[in-house]
Amino acid sequence: MKKLNLTFDITDDDGKVIVDGKSAGRILAGYLLRFPAKDKEADILRYHEMAMKLSRDEIIEVSDSDFEFLKNFIIKDENMFVIAKAPIILYLNSVQHEKKE
């Protein structure tokens, strides 16, 4: 299990917040909620729950498979801009490589 804290702001190359009042988690939640419902019902409900928690800026705990789903979702989503994708992917990479104590 991994804890994800996506409450950080997404900034442009000048350090300005690109969407006021929307953390990385809230931005990701918006895309997750528009994800085409092709998976099993249990997966759809789990993704919805993740999105709801992210939209409230909660720290979420995800399984390794959900972690991989989120990372691949971000990489493959064609509507999310690189300016939002890159900081989230960098954060997920840092979480993925954290040493367990």
Question: In words, what does this structure look like?
Answer:
The chain is mainly α and 101 residues long. The protein has one domain (2-96). The chain is built from four helices and two strands; from the N terminus they run βααβαα. A two-stranded antiparallel sheet has the order 1-2. Helix 1 runs antiparallel to helix 2. The longest helix has 15 residues, at 41-55. The protein is globular.
How are the strands of the largest sheet arranged? 1-2
Largest pleated sheet: 2 strands, antiparallel
Low-confidence stretches: none
Sheet-strand content, in percent, reads 5-15%
Shape: globular
Helix content: 40-55%
- Count of distinct structural domains: 1
Estimated radius of gyration: 13 Å
Helical stretch tally: 4
In short:
By secondary structure, the protein is mainly alpha-helical.
Which features does this protein show?
101 residues; mainly alpha
